[in-house]
Amino acid sequence: MMGEVKNSHKVEVQYQRFKKSWNLYKNSKGNALFKAVLHAFRCKGPQIFSYLLTKIIIEEYLIAIFLNLIATGLEIASPFLIKRTIEFIQDDS
């Protein structure tokens, strides 16, 4: 079972929103459909893009970037660590 759908998410409501926007933009020059869709479904509350960016960037990309930085750092440091280990072994004292 999927549960109840919010009234604002129902097809009839979405269709009416788009119909109002289409009536505004259908006679405009160039990209009338694109303008109508943007107008009809623009955000009216918390900005969805900032929410998505926060969730996606913080939870996925920053973790991936952090792990890649660790891997890169270890890869760059390995010749220096090997050199230091060899110097330690060859040290007479």
Characterize the structure shown:
The structure is a single chain. The protein has 93 residues and is mainly alpha-helical. It has 2 domains: 8-42, no CATH class; 45-93. Helix content is 72%, strand content 0%. It is built from 3 helices and no strands. It has helices spanning 11-25, 32-40, 48-90. Helix 1 crosses helix 2. The chain starts with 10 loop residues before the first helix and ends with a helix.
Give a quick precis of the structure.
By secondary structure, the chain is mostly helical. It contains 3 helices and no strands. The longest helix has 43 residues, at 48-90.
Relevant terms:
single chain, 93 residues, mainly alpha, 2 domains, 3 helices, 72% helix, 0% strand, elongated
Query: Structural class of the helices, strands and pairings?
Result: mainly alpha
Rg, rounded, reads: 28 Å
Number of helix segments?
3
* Helix/strand order: HHH
